[in-house]
Design brief:
Elements lengths: L1 E3 L1 E3 L2 E3 L6 E5 L6 E6 L3 H16 L1 H4 L2 H17 L1 H12 L3 H4 L3 H17 L5 E4 L7 E9 L2 E5 L5 H14 L3 E5 L6 H12 L7 E3 L8 H6 L6 E5 L2 H12 L4 E5 L4 E5 L5 H13 L9 E7 L3 H13 L19 H16 L3 E4 L19 E4 L6 H4 L6 E7 L2 H9 L3 E2 L1 E5 L3 H10 L4 E4 L14 E2 L2 E2 L6 H6 E9 L1
Parallel strand pairs: 1-5, 8-9, 8-11, 9-10, 11-12, 13-14, 13-19, 14-17, 16-17, 19-20
Antiparallel strand pairs: 2-3, 4-5, 6-7, 7-23, 12-22, 15-16, 18-21
Keywords: NAD, Oxidoreductase
Protein name: 2-hydroxymuconic semialdehyde dehydrogenase
Enzyme class: oxidoreductase
Length: 486
């Protein structure tokens, strides 16, 4: 029986209340272990440990020393690759073939990439003329923001947690992480790695629990937390934004999406099908950047739909260890119920179910898991709830369009603005349409191609702020100006 305790000030700590909750494997609903739920006392201890570490050894390290430590952390994750892979796939149910190429290596690389990028970025300097003719020199200086609360999601648990922890630590901050209650394992395991690499106690802390009246609320309302970074659904982001208003704490929110894919008739059809397949169905559709609305220019609509259905039919559902499997279960029974409710709603709203739409028969050993069929719909009206609301499952709706202006309006007709994908072989059209997308990131003839030096974040209800590369400096550091009279 695994037991997931909090990691506070370099030690694993049980909840004083004794409260725990079950962690279950979505593959077959078997019990993985019990997770300790943090109360106010555990959260307070973690925040105070993080605050003390700022004044202790961590705060006295040079940038080069911090960078060296973060390189050690990345290397140690890779040395313990199999342990992280097993823990991640047990929590999420995703195939080893996917997690071994994306989640674990990129999760480790976040420490080295951000340490190098942020360590080598200059600050500003200005020479000011003064009436006495001697002048003044203004020098920008960045210092750590302080204690950062990291609220990370369950769909890419290690990768999206280190996407925040990596730059936070590179800038000299300390962190208290609250991973999703669905996926506690790899964040907990990272505490061991921090100790093995000599990261001082209190720099990296982990508290487990839920949102309201639990670890999430206690952490985001704690007065000694200086900034909050969150990835998750928009409603939770709104609650965090309200909490951060007390004390005027800084926030970075990456929230929901209802992302469009636009396929023009002049595209490379096979590239468009391959890219749209990944964007709709990779990670069982549980990707914030995923495509749930696909708009296809009418001359190639039938051909595109046929090819998509052919490729969906080839998806191989199976256990994470199955080398042939490329499609796993949803993360939990609760999330499966949500996705299935949209499958039913789509039918009620008049959709044609082109493929999927139900629960697969996985056999007696796996039928207790959170499995759903990958699904394609056509025929829904543009005001249908299935078109308007984020589902976060392995599904998409494909609709024809006739004019460029029409599809731009359709793509932007959403409360969200996280990502978009455009498929065309016309460079002028690609630029013209991309510039009109109301989204934080627009891919042309690709999807999920990420350069960590570039800005990442959402527009409208998809979030606030930008992270990635030097843009993370604006969130993870405090910029002061030092004015020196000469």
């Amino acid at each position: 029986m695994n037991e997931f305790k909090h990691f506070i000030n370099g030690e694993y700590v049980a909840s004083a209340s004794g409260k725990t909750f079950d962690s279950r494997c979505p593959v077959d609903n078997s019990l993985i272990g019990r997770v300790h739920e943090a109360g106010r006392d555990e959260v307070d201890a973690a925040v105070r440990a993080a605050r003390a570490a700022l004044k202790g050894p961590w705060g006295k390290l040079t940038q080069a020393q911090r960078t060296a430590l973060l390189h050690k952390v990345a290397n140690r994750i890779n040395e313990r690759f199999d342990e992280f892979l097993e823990a991640e796939c047990r929590d999420t149910g995703k195939p080893y073939s996917i997690a071994s190429h994306i989640d674990i290596p990129r999760g480790a690389a976040n420490f080295t990439a951000f340490a190098e990028t942020l360590a080598n970025h200059p600050t500003e300097g200005f020479r000011l003329d003064t009436p006495d003719g001697k002048g003044a020199l203004n020098v920008g200086h960045r210092s750590p923001k302080g204690v950062i609360a990291v609220i990370s999601p369950w769909n890419l648990p290690l990768l999206l947690m280190t996407w925040k922890v990596g730059p936070a630590l590179a800038c000299g901050n300390t962190v208290v992480v609250k991973p999703s209650e669905e996926t506690p394992a790899t964040t907990t395991l990272l505490g061991e790695v921090m100790n093995e690499c000599g990261v001082p106690p209190g720099v990296f802390n982990v508290v487990h629990g839920f949102g309201p009246d639990s670890a999430g609320e206690f952490l985001t309302t704690h007065p000694l937390v200086d900034a909050i970074t969150f990835t998750g659904e928009t409603r939770t982001g709104e609650a965090i934004m309200k909490a951060a208003a007390v004390g005027l704490r800084n926030i970075s929110l990456e929230c929901g999406g209802k992302n469009p894919g636009i396929v023009f008739a002049d595209c490379d059809l096979e590239k468009a099908v391959e890219g749209t397949m990944r964007s709709a169905f990779v990670n069982c559709g549980q990707v914030c950047l995923g495509t749930e609305r696909v708009y296809v220019e009418r001359p190639i609509f039938d051909a595109f739909l046929t090819r998509m259905k052919e490729e969906v039919a080839k998806l191989k559902l199976g256990r994470p260890q199955d080398p042939q499997a490329n499609f796993g279960p949803l993360v939990s029974q609760e999330h499966r119920d949500k996705v299935l409710s949209y499958y039913q709603l789509a039918v009620e709203e008049g959709a044609t179910v082109e493929i999927g739409g139900g629960i697969p028969d996985m056999g007696p050993e796996l039928n207790g898991g959170a499995w759903v069929e990958p699904t394609i719909w056509t025929g829904l009206s543009d005001d249908a709830r299935v078109i308007r609301e984020e589902i976060f499952g392995p599904c998409c709706h494909i609709r024809p369009f006739d004019r460029e202006e029409e599809v731009i309006a359709l793509a932007n007709d959403t409360d969200y603005g996280l990502a978009a994908a455009i498929w065309t072989e016309s460079s002028s059209r690609a630029v013209r349409v991309a510039e009109q997308m109301e989204a934080g990131i627009v891919w042309v003839n690709s999807w999920f191609l990420r350069d960590l030096r570039t800005a990442f974040g959402g527009a409208k209800q998809s979030g606030i702020g930008r992270e990635g590369g030097v843009h993370g400096l604006e969130f993870y550091t405090e910029l002061k100006n030092i004015c020196i009279k000469l």
